[in-house]
Amino acid sequence: MSATVGQPRQFCTLGGQQSVVAIERAIPIVHGGPGCSGKIFGGLSFFNGFQGSGYAGGNAVPGTNSCERDIIFGGEQRLREVIDGALKVMDGDLFVVLTGCTADLVGDDTATVVSEYRERGVPIVHASTGGFKGYNHLGHELVVKAIIEQLLKPAKAINPKLVNVWSVVPYQDTFWAGNLKAIRELLEGIGLEANILFGHDSGGIGAWKRIPEAAFNLVLSPWVGLSIAEVLQQRFGTPVLHYPVLPIGAVETTRFLRAVTEFAQLPFQPVEDFILKREGNFYHFLDRAADFFMEMRWDLPGRFINISDSIYALGISRFLVNELSLHPAQQVVTDEPPEEHRETIRRNFAELKEKVSAEVIFSNDSDTIGRQLRKTGYDLPPLIIGSSWDRDLAREMGGFHLSIAMPVMDRLVLDRSYIGYEGGLRLIEDIYASVLGTY
Amino acid sequence: MSTILQHPRHLCALGGQQSVVAIPRAIPILHAGPGCGFKLHTGLGSYNGFQGGCYSGGAALVGTNVGEKEIVFGGEQRLREVIDGALKVMDGDLYVVLSGCATDLVGDDIENVVTQYRRQGAPIVYAATGGFRGTNLHGHETIVNAIVDQLLTPQEKISGLVNVWSTVPYYDPFWAGNLTAIQDLLAGLGLRTNLLFGPDSDGIDSWRRVPAAELNLVVSSWTGLSTAKLLNERYGTPWLHWPTLPIGGEETSRFLRAVTEAAHVDGQATQAFLDRQERRYHYYFERAADFFLEFRWDLPSHYVTVTDAFYGTGISRLLSGEFGLLPLRHFVTDQPPLEQHEAIQCQFAALSSELNAPLTFTADGDQIAAELREHPDSAPLILGSAWERDIAAELSACHLSIASPMMDRLVASGSYFGYNGALRLIEDIYSMILSAVQ
Amino acid sequence: MSVEQQIRQRDAANSGTGVQIRERRLGSITGFVGTAGELVQIARAGELAERERSFTQAGTCSSFCATLQLSLIQDAVVINHAPAGCAGDFPMFNLYNRYGQGKRNLARQNARLLTTNLNEQDTIFGATHKLVDAIHKAFRAFQPKAIFVTASCTSGIIGEDLESVIEEAEQELGIPIASVNCEGFRSQIWATGWDAAYNSILRKIVRPPLQRQLDTINIITFIGDDYFSELLQPIGLKPNLVVPFTGVKQLERLSEAGATAHMCSTLGTFLAAGLEREYGVPEVKSPPPYGLDSTDRWLREVANLTGKGAQVEPFIAAERAAIAPQLEIHRQRFAGRKAFVAAGPSHGHSSMEVLQDLGFDLVGSCMFHHDARLDHGDPTGDSLQAATRHTPGLSYGVCNKQAFELVNLLRRIQPDLVVVRHPSLALSIAKLGIPAVFVDDEHIALGYRGLLRYARKLANWLANPALERTLARTTKLPYTHWWLNQPPFSMLGEPR
Amino acid sequence: MSLVNIAHSNIPTREQRLGSIVSFEGLASELAELSRSGRLQDRPRSFTQVSSCASSCAICLLSLIQDAAVVNHAPLGCAGDFSMFNLVNRYGLVKRGQTPANARLISTNLNESDAVFGGTQKLEQAIRDAYERFHPKAIFVTASCASAITGEDIDAVADQLEEELKIPVATVHCEGFRSKVWTTGFDVAYHAILRKIVRPPEQRRPEVVNVITFWGEDVFSELFNRVGLQANLVVPFADVDRIARLSESGATVQMCSTLGTYLAAGLEALYSVPEVKAPPPYGLAGTDAWLRALGRTVHKEQEIEELIASEHEAIGPELEDLRRQLKGLTGYVAAGSVHGHSLASVLRELGMNVAGGCFWHHDPKLDNGDPAADSLEHLVREHGDMPVSICNKQAYELINQLRRLKPDVFIVRHPGMAVWGGKLGIPTFLVEDEHFALAYRGLLRFGRKILDAVNNPSFYKHLSEHAKLPYTDWWLQQGPATFMKEAE
Hints:
The structure holds four protein chains of four kinds. Chain C has 22 helices and 13 strands.
């Protein structure tokens, strides 16, 4: 279902382009209209925490810039031209052709064109990502599956320590780079090898080729990535661990690490030692600042409202309820999860804590969201954790506001992360800086 | 040199109590008026990043709360009462008695009282920290040197062990995160850090280990130098003094190379470690470059630092040395000893002669505001304490609090130290600006 | 039905509402290499032919340009009839909007933008019903004074009949609703998007004049600060900056002004010509007022059109005298520094002129496209000729934002400074260690005093190129050695 | 001689004036009886933790007067609370819809040589600076241990500068060591105000009621307007002129009679502005009684009765509901004496058990000397007896007490004390806005707040699991009063 949307919080399938940019030395080739790639870059990367071009993004992206002629007479010849050039001009290890609305609508046989190159040994795959097919969460899955299906071969041997990580969507999650790094450190902390696949030092094509060697796939997200894990299970029989809650803060991170430990049948004691040390540090600072949290100065805690992708809305709600004893108001999930996943998400919010539950609104349209949220009244100013779109709503409701969700236009984000023990501390610092900063 | 102060950025010598609180399981005992301890907790611990009372601070601070009686008849007996109680009630490994104005002025012989307890085997030391004696940075050095002087005994050297003396706990809201950052970086060089303060310190054991170190690392503009010298006389430990905050790709690497040399560790291993760190740092540097080159909205081209010398020099090297910003004015607020002023001048100037800006040593908010008003239309980026919010608003300048007192932020493990510290600072500065322009 | 038929059908449906693309209307091109003089000559002779590239990098499309102008009209709404990805630029326009509102002391609010969020079914069964919903929703949520419906590749290819939907809604809601035919694939020259936006304004918003405001000068521009008053007030005129940050009322009365001028004649050509054609508002033909000579000429023409001839000469003399001493200092500072401009015409031409006035040694330039003529057809408007009147031999390229060509070219030239005006090009240049000044406020260099403003800004950039140095030292460009050793324009095809 | 002697710059401490004490362990009824019979005596503690001093209390009131300036004649540490009052100031301004601005505070930063050679020149300079920098309508000079012990004659300096600058320059004798009862600081601040700021009435304004309070949100106006009265909240966020005219009002009430006792009594003594002598308006019974007393004072009995009736009706249903949900829960209260009594009665009225209260000090009588104002008496009479500790913020005693009583919720009014409840895993919150629980609607607000705290105790749970207490096991086995000596 996709109604009219004001103030979008995700973009179209072609957004998969940014997942390619997130792979080290991978080059996207966009077979679409002249503006598509730039708009995707602007929306998902630049005006979303100002994440920037990276190696082969922004203006470096090769594209066919389809014109009237390509629409009428087909654009396959034009695509060949650009691929030829790209192989000469662009210095990359992996090329991913993504189609836009134009090519998919006029029905260019991109698959054939690309497979011809692949048969000649070129590391190139194709994903049909015409914008009308869905959101960039889908685009991300399509790109990943394209690489898996068109490039990967079964492994000779399984590496019992290796785990493929499918979690936040690069660039859609403004903090993806720092988050993936944090996940890597957590998993390595308990003795696993994390195959992160996206971002700096993730190993590029090499890492992708190792995917079939993995002992299991970790899907750390409410729903995005599940279909990837399924494909991998079918092709390589790799088992899946699905952990739907983003681990923020001690309670959730510890729970997460224990779940992984059990699934991966890791030795129990070293993990507990690791957990003990990290929890110790986390709670040292909660303890140190306990005066502040309990003396609840400057109007918090009132109620908090998340307006973000299910992965954040759920993760942050659990965190604020578990660690800071805050209370939720309505929660807004904006990533349009497929129907079959919504019940689970609803339940997760209903069972935040014994006596604490929250009602969920599924919507990606600011108009709808605003009308829903304005219905409730509050004793104290609410805290709204959402995208930059929600600044107006927060002001109107006399609440506080922090941008953590696409699009983040009011922050610059580098390697900040909200995942794990450290991530929890960072989130607390940021929330209260935004509150205290208003005085 | 102590002028009348509006908007103080440091407090009095008794602020040394916070350095005691920063030592795991150490208990400060204040021999002072009833309100001193809590005021200092408020100014340095609470309304400065809301760091909080922790184990033995805040309302747990032990104190004699001297009244009229003690002022008239002397307070030594009162002090004994409280020490007796503290040894029974407070669960600690180290007790530090600090005197306040009242008791220093009436001249209680505290040293004598405390020494008696120490003779009976109590791990207790004494520091004369009457408020009028100086700033809390002075107080910090006083308590550190008191412990070194009254408690430590010679030890076998432990190879690769480095004592770290860095920013003053609590006064620097980021002190704890900074120490962790130093520990991680030195670990990368294969060194073992002996942290004396904060969550990663072993408390009294770390202190007892101090004489066993092969190197004293003073990462601080000037505080801690007297300690390093004292330890050098006592135990012949050499020291390395690094006076500017190592932040960013270039400064951090320079710092680590210097440590490598001073600690005689394998240069090649260091190089490999630095390469890895720099590569990661520059990945994010490149990512943000689009933004710096294009950010269409009057991104300030000039900046002002209103911090202690350590942060001021380090941050100006980052902003001017790596990000192409221009300094407008520097204010050094930690009242360094006069003999340090010239060195600090040079540290600011070191970058290049074109990048020189006027430097003022002052802690007075009024003077700072007045001098900033000399640049009415510059709208600079002001990095200072929360006091600067007003003058920033007046000059419609951008402002970020990074120095004491910080009433507008909560700081947990945050740090502006090293490679990651630079990324964090850049995120914080520009998020604040972006938020302000919309 | 074949795609071709669909397109023809759409063109039929939009007949009269669409605007011809620049390739056809103005003989515009995106590929050229040679000297400025040659280009001026060929274009003037009507012999300018496109040279297509085999390999290309992603460009920009009309939709972006159209939405930029329309989304900043404060009491209108823009509905993008497209899949969600075409809304990728919404956040950017929102930031422009909030930022500009702040600068103009307006209450900060999110830009009023909607997308119909087209999906697979819509491509099969059509989605005009969604457009109807969107229009009603926009009307309910914002009570706008006008609604613009921007088309997309998808809506174009599946042959959505926007006009009938719009006519119906207009009658029901009683406000102007305009379609904007800015489908990305229709033109390689994204500036066509401006034309489409202005066309919809001319068709649906602008009204016949009630009473003329002869001392008002329409200035067609972007979002820069109002420095035009500096030039116009002293001679008794006031600027009317459009289209961003105006209201519908203000646009209705464009027809009443004494003249229309540009901040960039490529930007405004369609609107200015339209206002002259339909309402007799004279267009200022000479190139925009950047650089001493062009500013003189521009002011004189404005004055003549508005009967201010008497005031203008003393003003010009006074201003030139006022800035002379400072200007001299800057000239000496910049003397011998090699500069290069990469931007869109004609603003890029203006920058070229300004840099030369400031004493830089202009070593070349590259513009994102070239219009063989402007809509008014008058050769005195040729800004390239104006900018290179003393330096016709200047090496000059036309390249629609192809980073790989620029990088290749600049690596050879190694200028001391590149002035660039288009998102995300600056980085590619800075990675070469070359200071890349991104022109944020397009008005900053305007007129006489602008020269000094601009000089100060450049001086600040050049004072500390640490950022560029660090980038050059620590980053790698995504291009092969093979490419960097080819001639910069070797991917250009033969003229068609 | 009258209670207020404006000829002198200083006044007796609470110990001297009211016989106040800072240590007691027993039942509320005993404490009330001892107070009434004049047999109440302090039991000095041998071991103590730091408490607070008069300086903080004085500065907190004076620094929030919007067009006055405060010069703290002291070493820099005494400025440790500047930043707190600054945030309170900015926060209060934002809340009142005004632009936030820094508080007008200056420290003379006394150092070693000043201690030896005297710092009066510095004080003169500081007062002139304050005048230059802020153009204030009045300047307050707060003393310190150091300035007093070195024998600075600050009164002389103040009088001389008052001549010179032609604005009131008032000294405030809030030296920390003078009194164990930090609320003495309020008294000396009010004394300075009565001496130098308040003017004899020009014209009486019977409809205006002075409300002596801190900086909580104004919940008084809404109530007062309904009976044709105006609330005049002082001292924080008032300006000098408004304070100067306190003498013209029809009555004075207090949010906490420990806070305002000296000012209220002073206004009655000097300018016969009647002080409403009843415990503050917390809880149904308390609020009813308080309103009636006010009604009698300003002759609005009838209107008041109608107001009471309508409010009772308005909150009735939700109050019932809250009582049902809170039934069986046990609370413990720690606060400054009278406010503590108020909070305890609020808990009882919400249907909760009160395991006891810990109050920072106790005044056996108030400056008005009228038993009708005795809030402890009221608490015992209306809501029954309870264990009471008097303890000037001695965390070690409090935690010892809390560990025995194990309440379900712990409610605190004083920075720095809440954390100890949390470290024991008890849902705890600080009453930041002292008006939060005030009057009828406050009862509901407060009830909701308590429910939030007990319904999600996870933060406290984790804190108790990870936070280490700085106290020995030995101590936690002792009785809370172990270190109280017999009365001297």
